[in-house]
Amino acid sequence: MPDLEGFNSAPAAELRPLLTDCLAVPRWVDALLADRPYPDVDALVAASDRHADLTDDEVRAAIASHPRIGEKAAGGGVTAKWSADEQSGVTAPLADRLLAANTAYEDRFGHIYLVCATGLSGERVLADLAARMGNPPDAELRVVSRELAKIAALRLRKALA
């Protein structure tokens, strides 16, 4: 993974997969690449936040690259490792409750539940999921969009650490 200097100077084609692992939204990837060079990682994260105002279609597409909370990401690589690290507070004893809660959420909203789980216990994730069940579908997509932006910022920092 590149450091910031490498990120600023690398060909866009080399960085595209890494950025897509952070947030699978081509418009966001293109915007971050176009805004280079960045003076520091905080400036990159600020640019990420500026460009992370996702459309509903972008949110739905980005969700598809994430596993359900409590499940391992398919395949290997950096995305699977990041996902496992982010969900480290969600432990196996909660598996049945998480499965039931995820199923209810998916039935209600038509997509997986997504939260920036870094630092959250499994109980906290379940409480957040339950609280969000009352959201109207359009409001819930906005919540998911904000969670995707948080995940992208964390992953950018990890990628350039």
UniProtKB/TrEMBL annotation:
Keyword Repeat applies: no
Pfam families reported for this sequence: OHCU_decarbox
Pathways per UniProt: Purine metabolism; urate degradation; (S)-allantoin from urate: step 3/3
Domain of life: Bacteria
Catalytic activity line of the entry: 5-hydroxy-2-oxo-4-ureido-2,5-dihydro-1H-imidazole-5-carboxylate + H(+) = (S)-allantoin + CO2
GO biological process: purine nucleobase metabolic process; urate catabolic process
Domain Oxo-4-hydroxy-4-carboxy-5-ureidoimidazoline decarboxylase: 8-157
Classification via PANTHER family: 2-OXO-4-HYDROXY-4-CARBOXY-5-UREIDOIMIDAZOLINE DECARBOXYLASE-RELATED (PTHR43466)
NCBIfam families: PRK13798.1, UraD_2
Protein name: 2-oxo-4-hydroxy-4-carboxy-5-ureidoimidazoline decarboxylase
Originating organism: Saccharothrix texasensis
